[in-house]
Design a protein that fits this description.
Strand order of the largest sheet: 1-2-3-4-5-7-6
Number of strands: 7
Shape: globular
Mean pLDDT: 88
Helix content: 25-40%
Number of helices: 5
Distance between the termini: 16 Å
Largest sheet: 7 strands, mixed
Radius of gyration: 15 Å
């Protein structure tokens, strides 16, 4: 499995993976325009030239970054692709000197296995007031907030 920063040619497979889960109500949809605009934030997991996992690390504030749009092809679920992406994002945050990484997720168990702790969304006011207020699910969001200190050793999940 290769983990690398996304390229323009990855936008369609990224969009397909995200749309697969968004159509099932498991994550927010992302329009192609947003994927193109934020492509530099994305990392992909590639197996034999096929994008099988994706996610992004989005900087929220000087001390906070968010893992977004984490998706793994169904046939690769449970094979370490998601945890490999999470490890990459935590290492990237560490390299950028960003001390905390969080995610909003329906898969809190997965993130807890990676060392994240569940927190109240209200503890992330930068996220809530910068972006969540524009979400169609606000204020009735059912996602769970999880957070980790990027200074901890790479997670084993």
């Amino acid at each position: 499995m290769e983990y690398r920063k996304a390229k323009i040619t990855d936008v369609e497979p990224i969009h397909a993976l995200i749309t697969y889960y968004a159509d099932r109500g498991l994550m927010l949809a992302r329009p192609r325009t947003l994927l193109y605009e934020s492509l530099r934030e994305f990392t992909v997991a590639v197996d034999q030239d096929r994008v099988v996992g994706v996610g992004s690390l989005h900087i929220i504030w000087e001390d906070l970054a968010e893992i977004r749009a984490l998706a793994v092809a169904p046939e690769y679920a449970g094979k370490g692709v998601g945890s490999g992406l999470v490890k990459n994002f935590i290492n990237e945050a560490r390299e950028l000197a960003i001390p905390r990484v969080f995610a909003l997720t329906y898969q809190d168990g997965f993130f807890e296995k990676c060392g994240f702790k569940v927190v109240d969304k209200d503890s992330l006011p930068q996220k809530v007031w910068k972006e969540c207020v524009n979400c169609p699910k606000f204020p009735n969001c059912e996602e769970i907030a999880v957070i980790i200190d990027s200074g901890v050793p790479a997670p084993i999940c």
